[in-house]
Amino acid sequence: MEKMTEIQQIEFDCFVHNTKKAWLSELSYLKKEILTWSKEEDIKEFAKQAKKRFCEASIEILEEALTRNRKLYKEIYKDETAHWMLAIIEENAADIKKRIRKYKTTIEYQNSGRTDFIDDSDIARAKEYPIEQIVEIGHNKRAKCCFHNGEDYNMGIKNNIARCFVCNEWGDSLKVYQAVHGCGFVEAVRALS
User: Fold this and answer.
1) How many CB atoms neighbour CB 167 within 10 A?
2) Are residues 157 and 102 in the same domain?
3) So what's the pLDDT on residue 116?
4) pTM flag (> 0.85)
5) Minimal CA–CA distance to 143: which of 159, 129, 126, 131?
6) Which residues span the domain enclosing 109?
7) 115 contacts 44 by C-beta, under 8 angstroms
8) Are 179 and 108 spatial neighbours (Cβ–Cβ below 8 Å)?
9) Total domain count for the chain?
10) DSSP string, 113-153
11) 23 lies in some domain
């Protein structure tokens, strides 16, 4: 296999760079479109019902796991040489019960029609919100630090994480939104999801 000449390497690098730039631009456009689409009322209702079905199915699976866990506990309890495993099984059961409660709470809120409830999917959606749309970006592809109210563009943004090179503070979309707007976590999640 021949080595690439310097010109071929430069052309290849330019091609890769331009392809990546076009792909990121398309990705950004698609995220905006999905965000707009997800705010439509019929889509919100569909998502609400899908979340409810997911929670119900998860509860069923976890309850089966809890039943298996109880059977295993009874079997191990009979064997005195394996009593050391009981604490592990109890911890696992506690984790399963916690997850069941979480899913049941989500279903309760879905059924109640309350709008003041946020769950993990809301938080995940909020964290995906582009930081570039929250803060002003300068000519050097950096932002003014919202954590120490810097005047220079010292806050770099990479993989939707902002980091100030002066005060060393960093954060995701939620933390940046909270710093810019002076609001709490719940308000930031609601605004960005």
Assistant:
1) 14
2) no
3) 67
4) no
5) 131
6) 41-114
7) no
8) no
9) 2
10) T-SS---HHHHHHHHHS-GGGTS-B-TTS-B--TTTT-SS-
11) no
Closest CA to 127 of 61, 83, 173: 173
pLDDT of 88: 92
- How far is it, in rounded angstroms, from Cα 113 to Cα 101? 19
Q: What is the reported pLDDT for 115? A: 66
Tokens at residue 184, please?
A: 């709490």
Q: Is 55 helix (H, G, I), strand (E, B) or coil?
A: helix
| CA–centroid distance for 33 within its chain | 19
Q: What are the residues whose beta carbons fall under 8 Å from the beta carbon of 66, sequence distance 6 or more? A: 93, 96, 97, 100
Per-residue confidence (pLDDT) for residue 69, from 0 to 100: 92
Same domain assignment for residues 47 and 108 = yes
Q: What is the pLDDT of residue 177?
A: 92
The first and second tokens of residue 84, run together, are: 């050391």
The pLDDT value recorded for residue 190 is 85
Does residue 60 sit in the same domain as residue 92? yes
* C-alpha–C-alpha distance, residues 145 and 176, integer Å: 9
For 19-66, write each residue's pLDDT tens digit.
Answer: 988 888 888 888 888 878 877 888 878 888 888 899 999 999 999 999
Tokens 């939707």 -> residue: 160
| Structure-token match 């309350």, residue found | 114
Of 89, 114, 139, the residue at which a domain comes to its end is 114
Whether the Cβ atoms of residue 171 and residue 162 lie closer than 8 Å to each other:
yes
Stretches where the chain sits below pLDDT 50 are none
